[in-house]
Each structure stands twice: as C-alpha cells, then as structure tokens.
Amino acid sequence: MIQNTDQGDVRPVRVGYLARMYPRFSQTFIVNEIREHERQGLDVSIVSIRLPNEGLFHDSVCRVKARAQYIPSTIRGQRRKFAKIHWRLFRRSPRNYWQAVKTLRSDAQAVWFDLARAAHVLRWVKDRRL
User: Fold this and answer.
1) Are 44 and 66 in contact (CB under 8 A)?
2) Which of 1, 2, 17, 111 has its CA 20 to 30 A from that of 129?
3) What pLDDT, in 10s, does the model give residues 86-120?
4) How far, in Å, are 34, 38, 58, 124, 126 from residue 1 at the CA level?
C-alpha cells in the first residue's frame, strides 16, 4: 500500500505498534493484524515498553517479519542518554515540558523515568515517520 503526500511523492504506509509487552500469548488479535498489514505491504514497526516474560507464544508470532524494539527498563547505565532526552524536550517546548512535569508530580505512581520513556517513544515514532 502506498500513500501520496502533499508534494506528490509516493511512499509506503507506515504503521507503528506500541505495546506494553510484546510478544505475549494473549495478543493473537494484534499479531494477526500485524501479519495482515505486512501481507498488504505496509511498513510495520513495533516498540515494546517491557521485555516479554512469558515463555509461551503462538506460532504466528514467528511469522511476523517486523522485529520489536524495546524501551530501556532502567536508567542504569543510561543516565546521559535520558538527560539528553529531557534537555531536548525542554528546549523544544519549555511550556509543554513543565506541564508534563506538573502532571507527573501529581501522579503518585509516575516517576521521572516515565517522562524519558515517553520521549523515547516519541523519538521512535518521529525517526520512523509513523
């Protein structure tokens, strides 16, 4: 499947999947949808917030061509990378950054790392032009 842009360029349609954990045994619908998108020629990308911790998967997962990328689960060893992410977010839009910080502080379950992970996902989306 292709998409026409405003400039008349033709490029493949890109679809991104953000999963809490991929693959999982319970994700048969998502896996079948991904496989169908790939069959239709769409460019599919997958990002997962967590590494899979279930040892059991459906056979259809093996037939998915797209390989999942995983968001780092800890800041350990990556402090500089996450500091850069925060700085980039702040520079791009100080008002939005401080609003995110305010929201983060009001949620007892949230941590600073969540904001950096969200920025990581945003960068993933932009890099792939999804």
Assistant:
1) yes
2) 111
3) 888 889 899 998 998 888 888 777 777 788 788 88
4) 14, 10, 27, 22, 20
